[in-house]
Amino acid sequence: MSNRPFVIDFLHAGGIHLSQYDHHIVRKLSSLRGQFLDQEIYEAMLRAQDPILYEVYEVKGAEVAGELIHGITIIHPGKVGTEYFMTKGHYHLLLDTAEVYYCLQGQGSMVMETPEGDWAVEPLRPQSTLYVPPRWAHRTVNTSPSEDLVIFFVYPGNAGHDYGTIEKQGYRKLVVERDGKPEIIDNLRWLPPEKR
Amino acid sequence: MSNRPFVIDFLHAGGIHLSQYDHHIVRKLSSLRGQFLDQEIYEAMLRAQDPILYEVYEVKGAEVAGELIHGITIIHPGKVGTEYFMTKGHYHLLLDTAEVYYCLQGQGSMVMETPEGDWAVEPLRPQSTLYVPPRWAHRTVNTSPSEDLVIFFVYPGNAGHDYGTIEKQGYRKLVVERDGKPEIIDNLRWLPPEKR
ipTM more than 0.90? Predict the structure, then answer.
């Protein structure tokens, strides 16, 4: 990334693309092993194919305090059983760092929780922001049956990512489809703070 | 501002409004004394009226490292002589902090410079981001003859604002209308680093 000011265009041709970026991260179904509720359906799906669940286009300079990393995340529509496609989700490695989202397209939810087990699920809808305060782990869920969810993100350059904690303990809440609508349910495999 | 996650909607009814915010800053012509090129026209305009040049709606928690302040700036269309309406502009008080913009509506320019006198002017147009690296002062200019310029911003909670430096030394470059189009010109009253 340049250390001079620069402009990036969001191109809307067959989905949203950035005119430039530093990293393109592609996460397939196989990279979310152990995260979905129905492990049998997950394994059966994976034997048939390994679809892309989401992609991140990141604009990134030095990973230091004062810098801002920004970009877009695109979560494709789909489900594993009744559970919607979602990101792995993470805590920031530097826990006391926030993140701001602006939703560009689609419909979804942000599933969040603190190390103490407090939780929140907030909607993602076009032309709205979502503020994730410091200390809240966050996972993005696409609840549309057919449309990509596209969100613009900004977070501090020194935030870093802690994926391991969530991989181990899971999220307290999951978002599944019930009667054609998103519903928040308890994750029975979630490890509460006292059992970690 | 809450320390739990929250959503803000960008309402598009007669201009863009936020469904919630912590501060509403209103800057009138009178607050930009000494910043416009043509001081005579400025004073004559001010004797007739004191119009609102721009407004900021800010969502703001603790002003500490790791937090992110976000919101929108609305610069109204207009000119002082040939010079377009603009923001005061500032350095961040903590100089080594960046800012990220996403343009929601309108047409404009961001006028930027470093303490060493390096300068840049980048366009603001809908569906594009502008990255302002650490150390760059920034001023927003609305170059549309009739439309509000509306930009979404995110910057570090501990950045702070230094308006005084720019008030004293001015910006190296100005944006004026020539033959109905924006043109970048030198500011003859700018104080270069060696004269400060």
Answer: yes
